[in-house]
Amino acid sequence: MDSLITAAGRALAAGDPLGALKRIALRDDAPALALRGIAMAQLGDLARAKILLRRAARAFGPREAVARARCTVAAAEIALVSRDLSWPEKTLDTARTTLEAHGDHANAAHARHLEIRRLVVIGRLGDAEERLAELEPAPLPPALRCAHELVIAGIAIRRLQTKTARTALVRAARAARDAGIPALGAEVECTSVVLDTPAARMIARGQERPLLLEEVEALMTSGTLVVDACRHVVRNAHITVPLATRPVLFALARALAEAWPEGVPRSTLLARAFGARHVDASHRARLRVEIGRLRARVRPLADIRASREGFALVPRRGSDVVVLAPPVEDQHASVLALLADGESWPSSALAIAIGASPRTVQRALDSLAAAGKAQAVGRGRARRWMTPPVPGFPTTLLLPGPLPSD
Length: 406
Known about the structure:
The protein is of the alpha+beta class. The chain contains 18 helices and 11 strands. It has a 6-stranded mixed sheet. Strands 6-8-7 form a 3-stranded antiparallel sheet. It has a two-stranded antiparallel sheet with strand order 10-11. The relative contact order is 0.08.
C-alpha cells in the first residue's frame, strides 16, 4: 500500500474525509475507490458512496478477501444509515467472519456493531444484547468504544434504564474526545438530548403533564396502575396485560382510567370504543360483552364495577390510576416516531421496523403526506420518506421493544 493510500486511510479514521479526498480523488485503483467511497459516505453523498464501493469490491482480486470484506462492511453501514433494512444480514456476517479469520479485529467489531444497531432499530433488543455481550470494548480504538457505548445507551433508553444510559453516554463522550472526531461528539450530544426531552404525557384525575424518561421509569416501577397508550398495555410494577391486538378493550380501559376515580357513562364508552352516535339495544349489549372481556383480562390488576349510569375502574390494593400517552398522538404515530429521527426511510424499512405489512405502511405514508406531516423524496424503488423532527417528540416510547419487567 503506497503512502497516499495510507495517509488517506488515516485521514478517514480521524474523521477528515476532505483530507482523504485531497490525496486520492483522481485515482481509480481499487484501494482508492474504496477510500473515496467511505469519504463520500462521511460527507453524506450515500448514492455516490454506494457506486464507488461496488466498483472497489469488483476491482479487488480474488485473493484480496479482506479488502472486499471491508467494502462489504462499509456498504452495510451505508445501508443502515439510509434505512435499507432489507440489506442481506448474511453478507455482513460472512464479511465479519472473514475479517476475524484474517486478524482484522477492529473492522470485525465494527461489523458486529452494525448488526447490533440494525437489531435495535427493528426492536429486537434481546438479540442485540446477546450479541453485544460477545464484544469486549477495552481493546477497541476510541472511535469504536464510542460506538459501543452509544449502542449500550440506545438499548438502555428503549428499556427505560435511564441510569445505565447516562453512564454509557458519559463513557461515550470520553471516548469521542479521545478519538478527536467532532462528528462522534455531536452524535453523543444528540443522543443525550433524548434523556432531557419530555417522552410522554401522564393523564391523571383530569389533568396531564409531560414526563421525562426518568419519570416514566419511576412510574413503571411504582405501585401505580398504568394504562400505557404508548405500548397499548395495562400494567403495574409486576403484571402486564397486553391489549395491542384488542383495540376496543384498550379504548374502554383508557376511558375508564382517564375518568378514575369517577365512573364513565355508557354513552361515553360507546362513543370512545365503537364511535357510536346513536345508541340502541345492540350497542348496549355489545358494550356489556366487551366490558366483561376487559374485566376478565385486567382481573389481576383491577375490577370494573357497574352502576346505574355506567362503569368505574377499581384498582386492587387501592393504587392510583394514570394514563401514559405519547407526547403527540396521531393515527399513524408509530410511523411518525420513526420518521422523526431525521433519516430518510424507504417504506419497506418502515414495515420491517413496525412489524406491519408494506401496504399498511404505504397507506399510512400517503395519509401523512396528504396532511403535510411526511414527504417523499425520489421515485420508484429509490423513493424515501422523511419529515423534519418534531420538537419535543422523541421516538423512544413508540419504537418497538419491551419495558424493563417484560
